[in-house]
From TrEMBL:
Domain of life from the UniProt record: Eukaryota
CDD domains xrefs: TRX_Fd_family
InterPro entries: Thioredoxin-like_sf, TPR-like_helical_dom_sf
Residue ranges of coiled coil: none
Name under which the protein is recorded: Uncharacterized protein
Length: 321
């Protein structure tokens, strides 16, 4: 890890690294190249199990988003987790649809599981595990334990109990970081063209971001800086909000140059999101198109607001030079 003599220098150096997209090189045995996600074609054949989580209004009310997030973070290598449409399980959600290995997802009779949460979710994770490709059982137990701890930390953070959130996030990351990295390496080794090297650790990125902001609220600038930088590293410099965490840390430590660079990097990622979700979505349902429109609109709005911030920062730098 790079060690610098002052917090201001650290923020500026970190932001500069981010702008040149080399932050990921700082994580041993973790960083893998980002591979394009699966094709959006309406007729594809996959070599891995496809796990589709129903996102109908009824299932979402029953906790489908939490189930989708958990399976994305915890499912064994060889499982492609994605959003799914209604499979007529209304009132028994969250409903998960499982398509066996190597089958055509348009023709196979899928296996459907109802009320996939709590113990039923853990049982499904055990069922999906494959001893030949999965991480060890002890590491998987640690991963699940840490993930659940992170959920408790997030609840404390949202309740503005920042001290409890910080401690719980520390425990969650300590317990589950290495198993999460091992799982990502195992996924990458067999994922092929369908593998997204960042998606599976989004919960870790979220944990670092929230911990950063909790520490800022508690005036722990150094701890917030470490968490912000970790969030950018684990997201491979692609998470706009992680970059904004770094900008907020630089602002709190009065590092105008670092804040400017981090904000510019965040704008670049919001622009990427805007471009990505501006593309036509043939074959997608109305819910997916509405979600894409929302993401695009939010990215455009935040990007514009950050543009005003950049103008102000550039003026401050010019006045102080």
């Amino acid at each position: 890890m790079i060690k610098l003599s002052s917090s201001s220098a650290y923020c500026a150096a970190a932001a500069a690294l981010l702008l040149y997209s080399v932050a990921g090189l700082l994580v041993n045995a973790f960083v893998v190249a980002t591979i394009p996600s699966a094709s959006s074609s309406s007729h594809i054949v996959l070599n891995a199990k496809v796990i589709r989580v129903c996102q109908s209004p009824g299932c979402r009310d029953d906790g489908a988003q939490s189930t989708l997030d958990s399976l994305t973070a915890l499912a064994a290598p060889g499982c492609q987790v994605m959003k799914g449409g209604c499979v007529s399980g209304c009132g028994a959600g969250p409903v998960v649809e499982i398509l066996p290995d190597g089958e055509d997802v348009m023709t196979i009779s899928s296996i459907k599981r109802k009320k996939v949460k709590g113990d039923a979710l853990i049982s499904l994770l055990d069922e999906l595990s494959d001893e030949e490709t999965d991480i060890s059982s002890s590491m998987r137990q640690r991963l699940i334990m840490g993930y659940e701890q992170a959920l408790e930390a997030k609840a404390a953070y949202e309740a503005k109990d920042y001290q409890s959130a910080i401690q719980s996030y520390e425990d969650a990351i300590q317990i589950a970081r290495n198993p999460a990295m091992a799982l990502e390496e195992a996924r990458a080794s067999i994922g092929g063209d369908n593998y997204d090297s960042v998606k599976g650790v989004n919960w870790l990125v979220d944990s670092f971001r929230n911990s950063c902001r909790a520490r800022l609220a508690m005036k722990d600038i150094d701890g917030a800086r470490r968490d912000a930088f970790a969030a950018t590293v684990f997201s491979q410099n692609t998470d706009a909000d992680a970059l904004m965490c770094l900008a907020e840390v630089c602002q709190a430590s009065k590092d105008t140059m670092g804040e400017l660079q981090a904000t510019k990097a965040a704008i670049a990622q919001y622009q990427r999101l805007e471009d990505e979700y501006s593309k036509p979505m043939p074959g997608k349902d109305a819910v997916a198109r509405a979600e894409a429109a929302k993401i695009k609109s939010n990215a455009s709005t935040v990007k514009r607001e950050l543009g005003f911030r950049i103008v102000k920062l550039e003026r401050e730098l010019k006045a102080s030079s």
